[in-house]
Amino acid sequence: MSLRTWDYDGDLYCSLTTKTGAGEGLTTHFELSEARMVPGGTPSMPASPAPGPAAVTVVVYAPEEEKPAEVFFDETQTLPFAVLQHFVTIVASASP
Questions:
Q1: Are the C-beta atoms of 33 and 10 separated by less than 8 Å?
Q2: 58: how many CB neighbours lie within 10 A of its CB?
Q3: Residue 79, SS3?
Q4: CB–CB of 17/64 below 8 Å?
Q5: Dihedral of CA 77/79/84/90: which sign?
Q6: Which contiguous run of DSSP H or E holds residue 33?
Q7: Confidence (pLDDT) at 65
Q8: 1: which residues sit within 8 A by CB, 6+ positions away?
Q9: b/e for 3-35, b at 16 or more Cβ within 10 A?
Q10: pLDDT digits (tens, 9 = 90+) for 31-50
Q11: Choice between 58 and 63, residue whose per-residue pLDDT is larger
Q12: Cβ(47)–Cβ(39) below 8 Å
């Protein structure tokens, strides 16, 4: 699992990538969301970004599955187009 964050116009966004399975059963999920800051719990632990509800989810299957990638959108959220473009670049660079 990996979490990438970036700032766009003063708002923080994140891409969460999760891989499940292995070999021919490998599935990769990419989720785009607005990031939210989570308190560290103690004064010595700084707040850190965490993903919010996914606005866009991309599911990429292993090439052996011969199944096209799927994209799902949360109808209740809107994003700047530049944020979506950045997310597509992340997905494209990580997909086989």
A1: no
A2: 23
A3: coil
A4: no
A5: negative
A6: strand 27-38
A7: 77
A8: 16, 17, 18, 19
A9: eeeeeeeeeebbbbbeeeeeeeebebebbbbbb
A10: 999 999 888 777 777 888 88
A11: 58
A12: yes
